[in-house]
Amino acid sequence: MFEYSPTDIIVQWGPTTLDGFMEGTFVNGERDEDSVTKHVGSKGTVTATLNANVSGMVACTIVQGDPTNALLLAALFKQERTGKLEKRPFSITDLAGTMLVTAPNAWIRRPANAEFAKEAVGREWIFDCDKLLYLPGIALK
Fold first, then answer.
1. How many angstroms separate the CA atoms of 61 and 126, rounded?
2. According to a count of CB atoms within 10 Å of the terminal CB, is the N or C end of the chain lower?
3. Total structural domains in the chain?
4. What is the pTM of this model?
């Protein structure tokens, strides 16, 4: 039997531990391109091409009132003010040991949307990553 708890998912961007996630899907990492592309010739010959591009993105949805939003916004403003990319290591760790997602360099793509509603809404922060790497949970043990 496998046990899962969202509280076992730790998301970090450099020294900042992201917190205050919305219900539902609160973090999602994915590569920008497929790892392998397939080409089928006119006579049915298949060629598989390995793609060296391992860049990706991570989207984190944080409830609008959580202080994590202010921390991320301050980092983005610093980046815009200085004209220097505010890049830090990024990681998603599942303490249950099923997966580790990591990137040596990640930066905020743009500010989260300023959406307001009758109830609390989420602010989606998107981090671009130079290399989005996946490690199986066995590497965590």
1. 9
2. N
3. 1
4. 0.88
